[in-house]
Amino acid sequence: MTAIVRSSVIAAVAILTIALCQAQTATARGPQFEVASVKPSPAPPASHAYNLSDTRVELGSVPLKSLIQLAYKLEAHQVSAPDWMATARFDILAKMPTGANRDQIPDMLQDLLADRFGLVVHHEPKEQQVYALLPGKQGSKLAEAAADNTDHTFLTGRAMLYKMETPEADGFWSISVKDGRSTFDAQRITMAELATVLTSRGYFQDPVLDMTGLKGYWQLRFDVPKNTGPFRPMPAANGAPTPPDDPDGISIPASLRKLGLEIQHQKASIDHLVVDSAEKTPTEN
Predict the structure, then answer these.
(1) Domain spans of the chain?
(2) What one-character-per-residue DSSP string does 28-60 give?
(3) Rounded-to-integer distance, Cα 121 and Cα 115, Å
(4) How confident is the model at residue 230 (pLDDT cuts 50, 70, 90)?
(5) 206 touches 130 (CB < 8 A)
(6) Could you tell me if residue 274 is left (phi over 0), alpha (psi between -120 and 50 degrees) or otherwise beta?
(7) pTM of the model
């Protein structure tokens, strides 16, 4: 009788433990999209769609690799994935749960990719060549941006935002051409975002990392080469990179130097997200 009672107690404890674990897992996952449609895109359009609000999420014709970048808030060079993920495009339409905000979209997108694609990933550090964005020896000459209440969260600092065909529509930065001169203009940008732009525009063959230690938002304006990269460093006596091939002799390092910033080629350990497995076709909506 005692053995039976003891077995019943053990079983009850086991059931309670499982229930608690399930509750903790659900809590740890946080809010989920109430309704989500994930479908393959029929054909690549002229541009991607990134429409986000506190009520809905619309992602149109976005490669799976870019969706992973969004979900884990990483740059393209930080995601190691099969080649097909860069070309397989999907449309996502999701309804935000009550009380959720856009800052929670990445976590909800992680869960959605795991549920619909069976996405399995892991993190690992990787040492690679980078360009470090650093303050100059004489200090920066940057002008602080004016106060602004514009929502500047979630997508900022992500390469796919800067690859959109009309980035100036988002009010972050623009490149204009006047009198034969190309100029980069940003009224409000962080150093991390600047590093992302320099990487995604192809000015450098290796990723640019913000190591300035400068916080806040800045107002920038500087000349950029007409011919975008890749900017390939060549051996130099002083260790400085050689300017890219530009008809006017304009180089990004020289332009940044005028702002009190420096570019240095070096090795750094970067967090990489490795895709272990994923299905090519999402499960039914």
Answers:
(1) 35-122+273-277, 127-271
(2) HH----SEEEEEE-SS--SS-EEEE-SSEEEEE
(3) 13
(4) very low
(5) yes
(6) beta
(7) 0.67
